[in-house]
Amino acid sequence: MGLTVLMNAGPWLSVPPPGYGGIENVVATLVPELRRLGVRVVLASVGSSTLAADERLSVFADGQFPSLQRPYNQVCGIAQAHLGGVVRAVRGRDDIDLVHDHVEAVGLATLAAMGADGPPVLHTLHWDLGKHPDLYGQLDGGNRVRVNGVSAAQLTRAPAALRAHSVGHVHLATPLAVDADRRPAVEKGEHVVVLGRINPGKGQDVAARLAQRAGFPLVLAGPVGPYHRPEELAAADGQARQNPDVRYWDERVAPHVDGVRVRWVGTVAGRDRDDLVASARATLFPLRWEEPGGTAVVESLALGTPVVATARGCLPELVTHGRTGLLTDDEDELADLLVASSLIDPDECRREAARRFTPAIMAERYIELYDRVRSLAGPVLRAA
Ligand code: UDP
């Protein structure tokens, strides 16, 4: 009998996500490959999810993400209500071999609190582990609850108690990596792309200033807070402009965006996103934070576009300096590296993606971790 995994994607967005949705995208990439490898997947998500699974469960009909704009005391029950549904489901049956959880903080705390009669749990950490020091610093999941990171660098930032629960890391993957080395080369344009949420950690202000100074065309793609289109952002009122990412845009990025040399195209999706990235001469990641996982990095490689970045977080694990991109510790060097990136072979980027970042590779690695977590947990004590 094969493994049955309850995959907890959480209550925030449907899977696959309707637009921007990092965690939900990872789940949508992972589940089909797990099922292809013989794993039964029970998907815990919202009712509107369309991802194929062997079974689904949900507490909410639709994604609850828009509620996160409301005050904490009005929304703090949402993740708990979803987790309540997961716990009830797991307690009511004896065929769940493992819960693979992706719900920040609440998933880990609730599943750890289930006690010895709960199933083994693997909780994937998708975020910066400097967050939640009170939760992570005192975590006690016994032998039953384990965590994994999405890069080795990310785990070095974890408090000791969290690291003690770690079974390692699994790099992110992209469906674009499948046969990436067999796709025909795309003709390169002059433009450089920054792909990601407009956010101080992602450093779009650095990119925009650099483009104006060094004189190269720059395209910024990604949402500003909840706004995906320039018209929507332009219509936002004073209250909405207090969103931290909107303030970052207004104060530090927008002054350098002239619509000619530096353009913001909003969130791009599907073919448009792939064409924009594949035809760029480089993608730029002028990071000011320790990027934990970097889906956009592996997507760029899969599309045959070299990565130029500050060497922070997972970047040195995903990009080989001189072969698939160029990395530096010094922000001021990025413009020179963009010039030098014309020497990086796009085919080599695609080959690397096909070798390392396919969904199948990610799924095989998770199956290894599921086995490891189950053997560390020992036999499950079922409640009588
Ligand atoms: N993305 C997109 N359109 C955009 C900007 C970003 O589809 O205009 C996608 C990008 O391709 C990637 C994800 O959003 O799949 C961002 O994930 P990443 O891990 O790079 O960053 P995060 O936002 O999770 O920190």
Please describe what this structure looks like:
- The structure is a single chain.
- With 384 residues, the protein is α/β, with parallel strands linked by helices.
- It is 36% helix and 14% strand.
- The protein is built from 16 helices and 13 strands.
- The protein has helices spanning 22-36, 72-75, 78-91, 106-112, 133-136, 152-156, 160-163, 204-214, 230-234, 244-253, 270-278, 295-302, 315-318, 334-340, 346-356, 359-377, and strands at 4-8, 40-45, 55-58, 98-101, 121-124, 145-149, 166-169, 192-195, 218-221, 262-264, 282-285, 307-310, 325-328.
- The chain has a 7-stranded parallel beta sheet, sandwiched between helices. A 6-stranded parallel beta sheet has the order 10-9-8-11-12-13, with helices on both faces.
- Strand 5, helix 5 and strand 6 (145-149) form a beta-alpha-beta unit.
- The radius of gyration is 21 Å and the shape is globular.
- The two termini are 23 Å apart.
- The structure holds uridine-5'-diphosphate.
- The site of uridine-5'-diphosphate (UDP) has 17 residues, from helix 1 and helix 12.
Present the secondary structure layout.
Blueprint: E1 4-8, H1 22-36, E2 40-45, E3 55-58, H2 72-75, H3 78-91, E4 98-101, H4 106-112, E5 121-124, H5 133-136, E6 145-149, H6 152-156, H7 160-163, E7 166-169, E8 192-195, H8 204-214, E9 218-221, H9 230-234, H10 244-253, E10 262-264, H11 270-278, E11 282-285, H12 295-302, E12 307-310, H13 315-318, E13 325-328, H14 334-340, H15 346-356, H16 359-377
Parallel strand pairs: 1-2, 1-4, 2-3, 4-5, 5-6, 6-7, 8-9, 8-11, 9-10, 11-12, 12-13
Bound molecules: uridine-5'-diphosphate.
